[in-house]
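Retry 2 of 3 after timeout on previous attempt. Resubmitting structure tokens to design endpoint.
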């Protein structure tokens, strides 16, 4: 399969720059997995397409304000009139220990091993190492709770296609997020409100949670023409025993396991494939993949030629997926992280 097999032409104005209010007022495209037939609705009516006994599995990872700004500290040996303060940007990618992180830094050429960067609120960082791709391993020094400090000084790491400032950081998190660790949101879950989840539960629709901390690798483009040559990024996932039991019970009663988002899908399929409840995964799902766990998928509209549209194509079929995307463009749906949703059943 070629990367170009998953291309579609998207008008720039359909890239959603801001979230809608309220969350569940976004549009919803319901797609029949067998026929590809499309129905148009609003997300607050999603329970109309679910039934008692179904199980919604959601990723409870929380995005934290992972983008922070500081200044490079002057070298002790530098003359007083040299080595002016250098503005620095850190984007925290992966936690290694209590104080050490893998980090994307700018400007990279000024931040060599041993450099120290000062941030507000007494936070500082030392560059320990430079790894493949130019990322830095840094060690932070601070007093108090690290994530509390980030909440005060950091900014949400919005995708590069969102250029407008986010006025409320909570809108880049789901209402059910619990486990801090993501650098990007599991965006299919952004449409749910607490009231909508309560309504689903009152109708006999069960809910369960997994955790996959989303890295910026989710936005990494596929560069190889042959998609089989693409190397997937690695992310850590966890499936709690309670969730595993709910999945078994759902299957036993004839219900449908519905993944809320591609991250939940990748978690469930990874666990089903390996038998491990907690592990690192670099699973790459593309057409031809045989699904082992999920029976339905709730997801947003994804970038052309991305691994995410390939995953959707694996579940729905490539032609039906591209047809649905053409319909979404004709109907002026909103695309990507803050955009509208689809449910495939």
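Retry 2 succeeded. Sequence:
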């Amino acid at each position: 399969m070629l990367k170009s097999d998953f291309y579609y032409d998207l008008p720039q104005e359909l890239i959603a720059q801001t979230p809608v209010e309220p969350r569940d007022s976004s549009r919803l495209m319901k797609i029949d997995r067998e026929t590809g037939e499309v129905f148009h609705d609003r997300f607050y009516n999603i329970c109309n397409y679910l039934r008692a006994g179904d199980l919604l599995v959601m990723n409870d990872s929380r995005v934290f304000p992972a983008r922070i700004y500081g200044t490079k500290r002057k070298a002790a040996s530098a003359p007083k009139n040299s080595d002016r303060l250098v503005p620095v940007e850190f984007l925290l990618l992966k936690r290694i220990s209590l104080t050490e992180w893998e980090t994307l830094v700018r400007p990279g050429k000024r931040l060599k091993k041993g450099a120290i960067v000062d941030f507000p609120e007494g936070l500082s960082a030392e560059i320990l190492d430079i790894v493949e791709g130019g990322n830095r391993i840094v060690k932070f020094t601070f007093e108090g709770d690290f994530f509390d400090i980030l909440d005060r000084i950091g900014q949400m790491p919005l995708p590069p296609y969102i250029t407008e400032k986010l006025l409320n950081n909570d809108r880049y998190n789901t209402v059910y997020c619990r486990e801090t660790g993501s650098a990007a949101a599991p965006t299919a879950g952004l449409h749910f409100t607490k009231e909508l989840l309560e309504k689903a539960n009152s109708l006999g629709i069960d809910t369960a949670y997994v955790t996959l901390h989303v890295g910026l690798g989710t936005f990494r483009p596929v560069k190889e023409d042959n998609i089989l040559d693409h190397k997937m990024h690695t992310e850590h996932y966890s499936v709690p025993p309670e969730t595993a039991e709910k999945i078994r019970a759902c299957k036993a009663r004839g219900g449908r396991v519905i993944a809320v988002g591609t991250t939940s899908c990748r978690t469930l399929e990874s666990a089903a494939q390996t038998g491990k409840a907690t592990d690192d995964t670099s699973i790459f799902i593309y057409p031809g993949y045989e699904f082992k766990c999920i029976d339905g998928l709730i997801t947003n509209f994804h970038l052309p030629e991305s691994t995410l549209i390939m995953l959707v194509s694996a579940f729905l079929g490539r032609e039906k997926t591209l047809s649905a995307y053409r319909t979404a463009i004709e109907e002026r749906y909103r695309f990507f992280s803050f955009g509208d949703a689809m449910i495939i059943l």
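Attempt log closed. The mean pLDDT is 94.
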